[in-house]
């Protein structure tokens, strides 16, 4: 392919100029990421944090269930699970019956549940609430995420924080630094363009501007990402895990195929990639109607993906340094709506999993007898949760990166 044709293609595709800058600063290929790994030192490069975002607002009351509280059954008779179906954790709380893997991790002391997590003056907008969680700034809108500020403060390179989501979340955006984004959505080529032509676009050209060359190389990475994702999916099929049902579209964000995202994280960890923070997601939790069936499907996917990942991570020293934190932008209202679903609520549980986790309950389950206009009252400020992983996993001062952080870390992940 001659240089003129190549340049025209790049311009038409939007990857020259500003697009090239984007590719050079926040986009990275999985193959390039794996090349940065060193299996010989895997596990010695530090602890790793995996953030799992549940987009749409997960119903915490039907995830961690207060099965022994009569108010739970009386306030939501359409949605409440009978005691005998709940996976009991103690004499008051239990897990949804679609979470048997998490129940096993609980029994093995590898699952911590932080109850009643929220933030001051709750906002019931999906987008504003998620922005609050990812920026860790509940009172003042800002454009940097708490992980992005950590990247700024440590002057880290983009591969230190990687998102396997369609777009880079604000979580990983800083003032001077940003994490890397690796999409796993698959490769769809325009009509008349085949993989061979894309590969040709990635070949260096004499005298080419550096940014244009960098952008062109990203096309080769697309092919490498495609191959690697297909390998992960075939491996899942070989293990008889089966495919994941499609997540219902709700327009609230998040990716599907959580197992595939976590399989890619696992490959990077095992390869000794220097990344310290990974961001993955599962969408579809905006359960306004017919909640039981949709919510159970999502929790089943979450359970299978998380437990498989944690089990795999237990097989290597590098994997045993990984901590997983699962959160959503808000919970749901206590009382069901007329469509057998729930509307936007407030506080909910946060899960923390891994081989370094001190399993058990943290915080306090919100009272169903003391509601705020029909919503749960939070007992734990979410900044305390994020501050704990900054301190215990990333060995950073929480007060430096989270405005309003107060008190001591919660110690669901021991220091050191």
From TrEMBL:
Chain residue ranges for the region called Disordered: 234-254
InterPro entries tied to this protein:
DUF1501 (IPR010869), TAT_signal (IPR006311)
UniProt feature, compositional bias: Basic and acidic residues: 234-243
Under the heading Pfam families, the entry gives: DUF1501
This protein is called DUF1501 domain-containing protein
Q: In which organism is this protein found?
A: Phytohabitans flavus
């Amino acid at each position: 392919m001659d240089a003129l044709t190549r340049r025209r293609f790049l311009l038409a595709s939007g990857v020259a100029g500003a697009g090239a800058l984007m590719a050079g600063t926040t986009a990275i290929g999985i193959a390039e990421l794996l090349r940065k790994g060193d299996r010989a030192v895997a596990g010695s490069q530090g602890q790793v944090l995996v953030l799992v975002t549940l987009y749409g607002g997960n119903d915490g009351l039907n995830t961690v269930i207060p099965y022994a509280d009569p108010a739970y059954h009386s306030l939501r008779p359409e949605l409440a699970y009978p005691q005998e179906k709940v996976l009991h954790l103690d004499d008051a709380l239990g897990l949804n019956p679609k979470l048997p893997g998490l129940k096993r991790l609980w029994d093995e002391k590898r699952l911590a549940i932080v109850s009643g997590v929220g933030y001051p003056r709750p906002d019931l907008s999906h987008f504003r609430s998620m922005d609050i969680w990812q920026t860790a700034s509940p009172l003042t809108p800002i454009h940097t995420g708490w992980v992005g500020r950590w990247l700024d403060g440590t002057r880290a390179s983009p591969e230190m924080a990687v998102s396997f989501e369609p777009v880079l979340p604000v979580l990983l955006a800083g003032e001077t630094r940003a994490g890397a984004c690796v999409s796993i959505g698959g490769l769809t080529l325009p009509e008349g363009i085949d993989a061979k032509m894309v590969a040709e676009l990635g070949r260096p050209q004499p005298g080419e501007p550096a940014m244009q060359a960098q952008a062109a190389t990203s096309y080769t990475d697309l092919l490498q990402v495609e191959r690697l994702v297909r390998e992960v999916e075939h491996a899942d099929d070989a293990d008889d895990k089966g495919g994941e049902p499609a997540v219902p579209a709700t327009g609230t964000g998040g990716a599907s195929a959580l197992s595939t995202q976590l399989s890619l994280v696992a490959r990077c960890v095992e390869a000794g990639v220097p990344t310290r923070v990974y961001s993955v997601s599962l969408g579809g939790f905006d359960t306004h109607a017919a909640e039981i069936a949709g919510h159970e499907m999502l929790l089943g996917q979450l359970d299978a993906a998380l437990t498989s990942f944690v089990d795999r991570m237990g097989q290597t020293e590098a994997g045993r340094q990984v901590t997983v934190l699962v959160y959503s932008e808000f919970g749901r209202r206590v009382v069901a709506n007329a469509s057998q679903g729930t509307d936007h609520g407030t506080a909910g549980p946060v899960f923390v999993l891994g081989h370094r986790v001190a399993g058990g309950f943290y915080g306090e389950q919100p009272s169903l007898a003391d509601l705020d206009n029909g919503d749960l009252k939070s007992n734990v400020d979410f900044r305390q949760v994020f501050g704990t992983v900054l301190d215990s996993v990333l060995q950073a001062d929480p007060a430096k990166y989270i405005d309003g952080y107060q008190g001591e870390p919660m110690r669901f992940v021991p220091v050191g």
